[in-house]
């Protein structure tokens, strides 16, 4: 086939395909860290977090979150648990080694980092803690953990 005819055919095909078929329109995607988790996903996250809490945290903080006096602090309505999400995520990613004062008791044993946990696992266990033991606070998402992890690498 003559190359001019070929070019012509290509041009006709290009013109006859409607523009809308070429440009696939997608809804604007929100920044993952800003996406609000749904009620259903939070319930599932808490359920997974409960299992992780029993496996990992309960040895020190106890099954009921009351901790061990002067050794392992309670996780009940503390400023760490209910406060700034970034700081709380860092407690798990970096561990904690500072003088923690909770209701007049001082804790200075170091907490070992739990950085081997996946982003989703950290989100789950923290969302469980923030919504158990009488605590009530917004869920933590894997995207938020991922963002904090990226700042400390
Ligand atoms: C080996 C024992 C140990 C394990 C396991 C452990 N922690 Fe801790 N945790 C501590 C100690 C000790 C501190 C206090 C650290 C300090 O004084 O600097 C602490 C502090 C904390 C704090 C901040 C203080 C407070 O009470 O609010 C949070 C939150 C916390 N841990 C959550 C967790 C979660 C969630 C897990 C499980 C993923 C976990 N910890 C596993 C021993 C532990």
Task: Please give the number of β-strands.
Answer: 2
Low-confidence stretches: none
Order of helices and strands: HHHHHEEHH
CATH architecture: Orthogonal Bundle
Ligand inventory reads:
heme C
Task: Please state roughly what percent of the residues sit in beta strands, choosing from under 5%, 5-15%, 15-25%, 25-35%, 35-45% or over 45%.
Answer: under 5%
Q: State the CATH superfamily name.
A: Cytochrome c-like domain
- Biggest sheet character: 2 strands, antiparallel
Which structural class do you get from the secondary structure elements?
mainly alpha
Output the CATH class name. Mainly Alpha
In which range does the helix fraction lie? 40-55%
Counted up, domains total 1
Shape: elongated
Q: Return Rg in Å.
A: 25 Å
In the sheet with the most strands, the strands line up as 1-2
Helix run count: 7
Q: Can you put this structure into words, describing what you see?
A:
With 153 residues, the chain is mainly alpha-helical. The protein has a single domain, classed as Orthogonal Bundle (Cytochrome Bc1 Complex, Chain D, domain 2), CATH 1.10.760.10. 51% of the residues lie in helices and 4% in strands. The protein is built from seven helices and two strands; from the N terminus they run αααααββαα. The chain has a two-stranded antiparallel ribbon. Strand 1 and strand 2 form a beta hairpin. Helix 3 crosses helix 6. The chain is elongated, with a radius of gyration of 25 Å. The mean pLDDT is 88. The chain binds heme C (HEC). The site of heme C has 29 residues, from helix 3, helix 4, helix 5, strand 1 and helix 6. The site of heme C (HEC) has 29 residues, from helix 3, helix 4, helix 5, strand 1 and helix 6.
